[in-house]
Amino acid sequence: MELNLTEVLSWTVLAREGHYGRAADELHVSTSCLTKRIQRLESQLGTVLVERGPGGVLAITGTGRLFAVRAERLLDDARRLATSAHEPAAPVVVGVPGFDGARVFEHWARNQPPTVRETLATFVCWVGIAFDHLDLALKSQRVDIMLTAGASTQPGIRSTRLWPLDRIGLVARSHPLSGRRTVPVEQFATLPFLRSAAAPPDWMSLWCLGDVRPMSEARMVEVAPRSMSDVLGSVARGSVVAVSPTLVGPVLPPPVSYVRLEGAPPAWYFAHTRHDEPRRVVTEVLRLLASIPAEQTFA
Amino acid sequence: MELNLTEVLSWTVLAREGHYGRAADELHVSTSCLTKRIQRLESQLGTVLVERGPGGVLAITGTGRLFAVRAERLLDDARRLATSAHEPAAPVVVGVPGFDGARVFEHWARNQPPTVRETLATFVCWVGIAFDHLDLALKSQRVDIMLTAGASTQPGIRSTRLWPLDRIGLVARSHPLSGRRTVPVEQFATLPFLRSAAAPPDWMSLWCLGDVRPMSEARMVEVAPRSMSDVLGSVARGSVVAVSPTLVGPVLPPPVSYVRLEGAPPAWYFAHTRHDEPRRVVTEVLRLLASIPAEQTFA
DNA sequence: GGGGATTACGAAGGACGTAAGAATA
DNA sequence: TATTCTTACGTCCTTCGTAATCCCC
């Protein structure tokens, strides 16, 4: 079912060496063992990684080469994950949307005034959550606090309003609207929107301008983004637009530009916690976050 | 040696359920099997993931929870890697520095004039390479073309000069130089520099301003970045500065800002290929890249 | 014949399930 | 006594190495 990383590692070595004998030596196994590892991997992936000839390895296939170079990253990530398990963990885990969301909030926390900064640094660990796990992350105890835009209607979850949130529209630089400073929000709402079916509707609504016109009137294009960079990639391709917090405006890659949304209704960041949260330190962090004045947030 | 993803998956399920019986049901194994999977994982990681009590699971440890939420991303990456093996591979693999470098070049390729764009789209696949694998990637046949700044002195590698390259200085927003538009390059060169020991010196030199003053005079801080975001993270923490291509200027996260380097010597992008590269399509892509006028690059 | 990969086969080890055990409540 | 996890133990399957095989140069 799941990939076997030993087999994956074996493939990266074989792809590099181009020779079963040398790769097997490097891995400290027999060539027959390596043969079988590669065969298992190939049958599991359902692809041919290497072209065999009677005189040995004829060639690494295109698929195999691409798999090797991508696999190297996975192996590296796996090793980092394993070593990160030794580091001490902060007691309060705060989730933010998107795998790459954590970085933004880590930065933000570091730029707070000293008392806030140090409290956050000692008690809080930021983690990015895939868009389709946003409400599961809280319920399954993955995180203690989930920071998103918009309140949750999920049972058992308490939402605390934090800071005001301005939204901007993201369009490809090749899009007709690119270059405009401002677009009426009603006009923007008629464009085809990027939509993640798996994301909680409570949360998705704000980013599809569900508060401007009924969601049923929105034109949607389904994608399955896990992180903001996936969203930006889709937008850059040109067929859809998206809405995001002002926060990401200065971080956009060159092929994406943003427009201000004129007349957009007000929106807020919310902190979500479990209703039965027993831990004092969690409520203290929540209080701290709520006490931060709007000017020190992302305005 | 390598992490076992079946065990990792089992842990994410157990951490979510907080109960061996339910988690085992969900995984379609017996509780005793699950017990042993978790024990193996714990002994391999060398940490305690769950506090056991006689009445069952007492609590998931902080380490265990953080491991679970991070592991979910690894599992997702692994599944994506496995499915990506079915997609057809472009014949020419072009490597760019840093795991996240590919995205920038994909965007860039998409914004070329139609003929160039379509040729690149059909023949080229961009992959990001960790900084410490830059010259290995070519030799081990991982990539056909490696795009970096600076020529290579490695034997067997042919470097083709492509486009002029402007460099900027990256500093934390809290850094004294932040806010300055321009800094004399000699002054910037005296700051403590981020340095990756594993990266090839040929390549690292440009980013440590080795062409401004001898590398021996540079103040270095060792880190092991794999991608531009690792670099940006170190810079944001405030103790070091870095140099990057102008290209990343518009992509910086809020806590990092950039200054122009006044008087920086000229630099170039280079395409590196194996000297014995037999494939016609590779040289054709190389020729295409070289033919792109400077204005259409990253100026 | 020699180099290179796969297949055959037997051995070792790992992973699994059933069932018993231990510790609460 | 019911619940929950761990341990004991037997079974089966996987993985490995040695050695034989196949195939071209």
Report on the architecture of this protein.
Two copies of one chain form a homodimer. Chain A has 299 residues and is α/β, with parallel strands linked by helices. Chain A has three domains: 80 residues, Arc Repressor Mutant, subunit A (Orthogonal Bundle); 100 residues, D-Maltodextrin-Binding Protein, domain 2, CATH 3.40.190.10; 96 residues, Periplasmic binding protein-like II (D-Maltodextrin-Binding Protein, domain 2). The first copy, chain A, is built from eleven helices and 13 strands. Chain A has a five-stranded mixed β-sheet. A four-stranded mixed β-sheet of chain A has the order 8-12-7-11. In chain A, strands 1-2 form a two-stranded antiparallel sheet. In chain A, a hairpin with a 2-residue loop joins strand 1 and strand 2. Chain A starts with a helix and ends in an 8-residue tail after the last helix. In chain A, 43% of the residues are buried. The interface between A and B is large, with 77 and 77 residues. The structure holds a DNA duplex (25 and 25 nucleotides).
CATH domain fold name of the largest domain in chain A: D-Maltodextrin-Binding Protein, domain 2
CATH architecture of the largest domain in chain A: 3-Layer(aba) Sandwich
**Number of helices in the DSSP assignment of chain A:** 11
Order of SSEs of chain A, N→C? HHHEEHEHHEHEEEEHEHEHEEEH
Q: How many β strands of chain A by DSSP?
A: 13
Helix share, percent of chain A: 25-40%
Assign the structural class of chain A, choosing from mainly alpha, mainly beta, alpha/beta, alpha+beta, or little secondary structure.
alpha/beta
Shape of chain A: globular
Largest sheet of chain A: 5 strands, mixed
Biggest contact: A-B, 77 and 77 residues
How many angstroms separate the termini of chain A? Answer: 46 Å
Radius of gyration of chain A, in angstroms, nearest whole number: 24 Å
Q: What percentage of the residues of chain A does DSSP assign to strands (E)?
A: 15-25%
Question: Order of strands side by side in the largest beta sheet of chain A?
Answer: 4-3-5-13-6
**The CATH class of the largest domain in chain A:** Alpha Beta
Oligomer: homodimer
CATH superfamily of the largest domain in chain A: Periplasmic binding protein-like II
Mean pLDDT figure of chain A:
85
